[in-house]
């Protein structure tokens, strides 16, 4: 299982939200590039970057900062995947051309599945589909709208399209550190052969161990790292 530290961007700073709510924000770092360097030096192989402003506004707004993070990570051989407000194919193409290793698509996968399928074919191993769910149903548009598609259904579609991986987030757990949705994520992993990553709610090393035992391919870590519950090095030791 791989460990993926997360950097959520808002107003040029690294922040964390609680349950995806814009007004429940905590700022942790003024320099996200330095933070990416810290994660890389700690041994992370990938970093997950989210443009929260873009997710809420429906268009990327921190591309220059994301490119700087990618450039810093690349010096350490670390991959960067990014999402948030990516709602058209041209933006995906531009991000990949700018040095992003993988692009994470959630809203676009629900609203324009044929576009995402085409992107998966055009950019092999570069598209991750985000199954961000409330009560098992995918939430879109910065998690403000609930779709009629289940996380399992979206994951199965992602595999058919040729996506590199699926990122499953239980929105209700995100930023709360009460534990990830291990059973739900493992259930999705059991349905498909491409990797499924768990995100949201990890608060302890025991939570990481539970994901590993369940056969989940990767886990995204956020607030627990920033609050000092454990380090990247300690998380890696449990995988």
Q: Could you please describe the fold and organization of this structure?
A:
By secondary structure, the chain is of the alpha/beta class. The chain has a single domain, classed as TIM Barrel (Alpha-Beta Barrel), CATH 3.20.20. 38% of the residues lie in helices and 30% in strands. The chain is built from eleven helices and twelve strands. The chain has helices at residues 32-41, 52-57, 63-74, 89-97, 107-111, 113-122, 151-161, 182-191, 205-213, 223-226, 232-237; strands at residues 2-10, 13-18, 21-29, 46-51, 79-83, 102-105, 127-134, 137-140, 145-150, 165-170, 196-199, 218-221. Strands 1-4-5-6-7-10-11-12 form an eight-stranded parallel β-barrel, surrounded by seven helices. Strand 7 and strand 8 (137-140) form a beta hairpin. Helix 1 (32-41) packs parallel to helix 3. The termini are close together. The model has no long low-confidence stretch (mean pLDDT 93).
